[in-house]
Amino acid sequence: MRTESTPVLIIGGGLVGLSASLFLSWRGVRSVLVERHPGTSIHPRAWGLYPRTLELLRGVGVEKAVLAESAGFAGHVLNGRVESLAGAEIAVSRIPEPEDVSGVSPVERIVSLSQDRVEPILMERARELGSDVRFGAEAVELAQDADGVTVVLRDRAGGGEYAIRAEYVVAADGAHSPVRERLGIGRGGGGCCGTR
C-alpha cells in the first residue's frame, strides 16, 4: 500500500473542514483534505454567516465572492424553521438589518447564504492557496502513535486503498464524527436533543 505524508490531514469536507483547509493554506501550512462524498454539499443545510465570520473570510480573500454570491438574499431578514417545505412552521426569527451590524463590525452586512453555495467558494480559494482537496476518499482506519497519525483511505469510486501519514489530523467529519468515535473522544453539553 502506498503511503503519502502531510503535516495536516483534514477528514471531512464540509464548512468546517474546508475552512480549516483554507486557513491553514493561507498561513502556509500544507494540508490534505479528504471527504467521502463525491463533491461539496448539494443541499442547503447550514444557512447564514455572521459578521465575525465575514471578517475572517475578508482576511483570506473570499468576502467579496461570498457577498456577490449572496446578493440576491441581501434584503432577507427572516429565518424560518419548518418540518418540511409543505410541513408545519416550527419557528421564525429576524436577523439584524445591515445598519445594525455597522456598529460592531466593518463588514457590509450579515449574509444569508446556504452551505451548498459557500463550500465551493471556500474550496476554490483553498486550492488557489495550495491545499490538496480530495473528494470520494473515505477514512477507514486510523492509528495514532507518538510521532503522528496514519490514516488508511479508500477511494470510493475505484475501491483502492492508500495511507496518509500526518503530524496532525483534524476531525471535521460532522457532529457524529466516526473519527472521534474511533479515538474515543466524547462530547459534552446539552445538545439540541437533550443528549449529553
Description:
A hairpin with a 6-residue loop joins strand 4 and strand 5. A 6-stranded mixed β-sheet has the order 7-2-1-10-9-8. It is built from 6 helices and 10 strands; from the N terminus they run E-H-E-E-H-H-E-E-H-E-H-E-E-E-E-H. It has one domain: FAD/NAD(P)-binding domain. With about 200 residues, the protein is of the alpha/beta class. Helix content is about 25%, strand content about 35%.
Essential attributes:
196 residues, alpha/beta, FAD/NAD(P)-binding domain, six-stranded mixed beta sheet, two-stranded antiparallel ribbon, 6 helices, 27% helix
Percentage of β-strand residues:
25-35%
Q: Mind telling me which CATH architecture this is?
A: 3-Layer(bba) Sandwich
Q: Give the ordered list of helices and strands.
A: EHEEHHEEHEHEEEEH
Mean pLDDT: 88
Indicate the topology.
Layout: E1 3-11, H1 15-26, E2 31-35, E3 47-49, H2 51-59, H3 63-69, E4 78-82, E5 89-94, H4 98-101, E6 111-114, H5 115-128, E7 132-135, E8 137-145, E9 148-155, E10 161-171, H6 178-183
Parallel strand pairs: 1-2, 1-10, 2-7
Antiparallel strand pairs: 3-6, 4-5, 8-9, 9-10
In short:
The protein has 196 residues and is of the alpha/beta class. It has helices at residues 15-26, 51-59, 63-69, 98-101, 115-128, 178-183; strands at residues 3-11, 31-35, 47-49, 78-82, 89-94, 111-114, 132-135, 137-145, 148-155, 161-171. Helix content is 27%, strand content 33%.
